[in-house]
Model the fold of this input.
Amino acid sequence: MGYNVAVDGPAGAGKSTIAKLVAKEKNYIYVDTGAMYRAMAIHFLQKGISPEATEEIAHACQDANVTIDYEDGVQQVYLNGENVTSRLRTEEVGNMASKTSQIPAVREKLLELQRGLAREKDVIMDGRDIGTCILPEADVKIYLTASVETRATRRFEELKEKGVPCDYEEIARDIKERDTRDTNRETAPLRKADDAYLVDSSDMTIEEVVKTICGYCK
Done:
C-alpha cells in the first residue's frame, strides 16, 4: 500500500513547485497529471482517432495504461510499457491533450490510473480536489495557500523575468476571479479538507514551506 500526500490550494500558491521538492526530499513520486493527459493523447494519436470522435476515444481508454516512474531523479512516463517521455512535449500531442482532456471518459480513466499509482507507490499529488475527491484517504493532506497579493506578486515577477509584458492589477484581478470560479464550481469545488493542514506561504520562503510539509510526512 502506497503512502499518499495530497496538496490542494488556489491558483498561484506554488503547489507544483513545492510538491516536486517534497517528492525529491522524501523520495516520493510526484504525480504529474498533465503528463498523464499527454500520454493518453499519444495513445489516441497512435490509434488515428480524431479528438472529436468522443465515442472512439472513450472505447480507446479501456486499453490504455499510463504510469510514472523516476530514473536517476528524472521523471519517465510510460504508455502500455513504452517510455513516451520524449514525445510528450510535441505540439501535436499538446493539441490532442488539450482537446481530449475535457472528455469525461478520459478524466475517469486518468482518475482510475492516478488512484492505482497511489495504491502501489508513495506519491505526492497536487491540484484543486486531490484531498477531497481524488485521494480522500490520503495519509497527509495539505492546503497550501497565500494571499492574493503574494500570489499576484510572484506571478508578476515570474513573467517579468521571462520578459513577458504584464500588469500587476490585471494579474491580481485574474487570480481573484479564478478563486471565485474554483470555489464555486459545481463539480469538485476547491475547498480545504477537514483533516488537511493549512499552510499559508505568504510570509514563507520555498525552503520553509518544504520543511513544514516534510514535517507532517513520514
